[in-house]
Design a protein that fits this description.
The structure holds 2 protein chains of 2 kinds.
Chain A (H helix, E strand, L loop, with lengths): L1 E3 L4 H10 L3 E4 L5 H6 L7 E4 L9 E3 L3 E5 L4 H5 L2 H6 L1 H8 L4 H4 L4 H6 L7 H7 L3 E6 L2 E6 L4 E3 L2 E2 L6 E8 L5 E8 L10 E9 L5 E9 L6 E2 L1 H7 L6 H14 L10 H23 L9
Parallel strand pairs in A: 1-3, 2-3
Antiparallel strand pairs in A: 4-5, 5-10, 6-7, 6-10, 8-9, 11-12, 12-13, 13-14
Chain B lengths: L1 E8 L2 E8 L4 H8 L18 E4 L2 E4 L12 E3 L12 H8 L9 H14 L5 H7 L11 H19 L3
Classes of the chains: A alpha+beta, B alpha+beta.
Chain lengths: ~290, ~160
């Protein structure tokens, strides 16, 4: 394997075009174990971390631009970012140990395309957009359009994600992400649930987004659960409806981490709890999250 | 293919030739001769290869060697100052916070990263900060206590008190 550390997006795209078996990487926390496990070695490793646009967190007029290769520890340590989007920040912060956090990135977590990727439900509920560069220029797509199945993305061979655009949430809005694992740290989600909602003056929920991870080939939004809460307050009745809709939306697998029935059940429970935390945050009450 | 890498390791400007697709772990051990950094799992799960890159703890097994170009790295060999052990090394020894010792360099580097940014961590914070390091013989309680003791010693020294 050869190694290249381009400093511009154009240089990276050029290398991808020139060498079809090239592969971009950010933290390599998935790539290196995959190669060790026997996946084919790329002919060329393209390190995105020397490209300015691919690293860093920049505040804009409307929110933030986050480089796709930015270590997730930078997001969780950024008080403005993690204060405004605690759910997304916590989701990103759940990826592995401190050692991994200093390497893992939103771009890598998304493009590795694990159904259990923690940051993806957090990005879905916040309408995060991916700016993708390729031979024909740049395009911007919703994060939900990137993964198409386990280990698969919609990116062409000459494309990679440069950065993410993240809007500042409106007033009276809260988000939350919860993950079920059998221990407290260092495991892969059995189920993940992200919720963002806005409370109106009467305490009713508007603009509800609910997303689940690890229960289907890709992370998914759950429109039925969102509809069950929209225009209504968070109470026992709406929480039960959210849980039922979340459980029904699951299309999970049986594996060593959990059975289908278990994942369906837990998805409902986590969705309910995440709604409760998001609503408390929307009402201005800080809530300690995932840890 | 080999790549020439220039970086600062434990305060010394260092040059080495590394396999372009090899890990920094292998380069440190085989090309630079720093064998204090250990290979456990090779997949970022056990933390035995923990080092500091730009003051941040990372697994050397998950870094391609050429990525080290221009960076500042600290390994276990850089933890003591001349003959003076780092307080973490002292308390690990005094508290018998090791048995076979393979995980110890990684634990020490992860603990150093924690204490560098948080001189007075709670037990919970220590346990989370060391969650990426596995020990299969000591158990964790002595390690946690050693970190607490080192933190206290470092705070006392910094304050100039006894």
């Amino acid at each position: 394997m050869d190694y290249l550390a381009p400093t511009t997006v154009e240089e990276a795209v050029g290398a991808l075009v020139e060498q079809p078996d090239a592969r971009v990487f950010a933290g390599a926390t998935d790539l290196i174990p995959q190669i060790r496990a026997g996946r084919p070695e790329p002919g060329l490793l393209i390190d995105l971390k020397r490209i300015d646009r691919c690293t860093g967190v920049a505040e804009t007029d409307t929110g933030w631009t986050v480089g796709a290769a930015t270590p997730t520890s930078r997001l969780t340590e950024d008080p403005e970012f993690s204060g405004a989007l605690p759910g997304l920040s916590e989701a990103a912060g759940l990826i592995g140990s401190d050692q991994i956090q200093n390497r893992s990135s939103l771009g890598g977590n998304l493009c590795n395309a694990s159904p259990a990727a923690d940051s993806v439900p957090g990005m879905l509920i916040n309408d995060v957009r991916a700016v993708i560069a390729g031979a024909s220029g740049e395009r911007t797509v919703p994060v939900g359009d990137v993964t198409t199945g386990p280990g698969r993305t919609s990116l062409a061979d000459d494309e990679f994600i440069v950065e993410f655009e993240i809007d500042r949430p409106p007033a009276n809005t809260g988000d939350a992400y919860l993950r079920m694992i059998p221990r407290t740290e260092m495991d892969i989600a059995v189920v993940g649930a992200g919720v963002r909602l806005t409370l109106d003056d009467d305490g009713n929920c508007t603009d509800v987004r609910i997303a689940l991870g690890a229960v289907a080939p890709t992370a998914l939004r759950v429109p039925d659960a969102e509809a069950a809460l929209t225009g209504k307050p968070v109470d026992a009745e709406t929480l039960a409806a959210v849980a039922a809709a979340a459980s029904a939306a699951c299309n999970p697998i049986d594996d060593k981490r959990g059975t289908i029935a278990y994942r369906q059940q837990v998805a409902g429970v986590l969705a309910k709890r995440a709604v409760t935390i998001a609503a408390q945050r929307a009402a201005g009450q800080p809530v300690n999250g995932a840890h | 293919m080999k790549t020439h890498v220039h970086c600062t390791i434990n305060g010394n400007e260092t040059d080495f030739l590394a396999d372009s697709g090899g890990t920094l772990l292998n380069a440190l051990r085989d090309d630079v001769g720093l064998t204090g950094v250990k290979e456990g799992c090779g997949t970022g799960d056990c933390g035995a290869c923990s080092i500091l890159v730009e003051e941040r703890v990372t697994c050397a097994c998950l870094i391609f060697a050429p990525e080290a170009q221009g960076t500042t790295i600290v390994t276990i060999e850089g933890l003591a100052e001349a003959d003076h052990l780092h307080p973490l090394q002292e308390t690990f020894l005094e508290g018998a916070a090791l048995q076979c010792g393979v995980c110890t360099p990684g634990f020490l580097m992860a603990a150093k990263a924690l204490l560098d940014k948080n001189p007075d961590p709670t037990e919970t914070e220590i346990r989370y900060a060391l969650a990426g390091n596995l020990c299969r013989c000591t158990g964790y309680d002595k390690i946690i206590r050693a970190v607490q003791d080192a933190a206290e010693r470092m705070r006392t020294n910094t304050n100039g008190a006894a």
